[in-house]
Amino acid sequence: MNVSESVNRHNLRERNLKGANLAGAELKGVNLRGVDLSGANLQKAVLHYADLVDTNLSNANLEEALMAKTFLNLANLSHANLRGANLRESSLIGTELTHADLRATNFLKANMISVNLAQTQLAGANLSGADLREAQLKDALLKGALYSHRTIVDASVDLAQLGAYLLAPGTSLRGLNLTGADISDAELKGADLRESNLTRAVLTGTNLEEANLSRANLSDANLQESNLIDVSLTNAIYTLKTLFPSGFDPTQFGAYLIAPGVTMQGSHLSGLALNGVDLRGANLSRSNLSAIALAHADLSRANLRKANLRTAQLNGIDLREADLTGIIGSKCSAIASDLRQADFTRANLRKANLSGADLRGADLTGANLQEADLSFADLRGADLTKTDLQGVNLRGASLRKTELVQVNLEGGDLSEADLSQTFLFRVNLKGAKLKRTHLRGAILREVLLVNADLNETQMNEVSMSDSVL
């Protein structure tokens, strides 16, 4: 049943709403007491002040629903999805929430007496000021949940011991994943939030005076009306969707804007999770990006000259036409990435994983790819002049019609690779595996093939001169 577009608020109690689609519906103050809404879709619905006492919302989708000051006493929300929902100051006396997804849910000042939270997921949930007396917490996952000194629990319950974090002045939340968490109006003066992930977090009205948010991720976060006096944002990141108090300039406090075309030369972003970001054409030359996570990010045409990308996670990244001259990328992973026409001149990619990468037209002149994994990579048209590929894995890779000049492939695995119509000049293939390698129509000049495994190698129409077998 789809009633999300036009909702008649006056006769909802008389309708069959089991499994109904009420996504985004405006239901502020509606009376749905005792109604069967099991399996209903109420994602992002507005339910402030609604009467949902004794309502069946089992298996319902209430993700990001707005439910401040809603009455949910004795309601059944077992197996419901309430991720990111706002239940601020709501009443949930005796409410059934077993197996519910309550990650990043806001229960600020909620009345949760005798609520059943058995086997719920509460990471990032805000329980500040909530009354949890006589609550059932058996097997509840409270690691990463948030609470304050005003949160009321039974004497036998220790929220900190269960993995929850205290929101209070001077508290340490360093490195905590608070993605989507609602911690508005919290007292966090002098708090340690270094390296914390606050992506899409709500911090409206939060007191962050003298707080340390160095290297924090503030992507798409809402900090409107927050107190940022003397805050530290050194090497923190934010996006165009991040909301700050009027007149506040985060760059003056050391933060970096993550957006296409930005200049971040020499920045220190090591270890940050920036998966999927858009940094097209950005200048990140000489930046420290070691151990950074940039999976599926767009850095096409970006300037990364001499950047440190050691152990970076770049799987699925778009680096088309990017300048990676002289980068340190040892042990980085760029599986199935788009690296077409990227410039890797003199790059250090030792032991890098580039399996399945598209390197067509890339410039690898003088690059170090010793022991790198290039299995099933596409290297057609790549410039491999003086590239060090000693011990490389090129199994199943395509180098068709590619020129290999003064390339070191000693001990490399080229089994089943396509080198048909390839030109090889002064290439070292000593001890290389060429089992079932396609060399049809290839031209080999001064190639060293001593101890190479040529078992089942396809060498039809191969031209060899001054080569050593």
UniProtKB/TrEMBL annotation:
This is Pentapeptide repeat-containing protein.
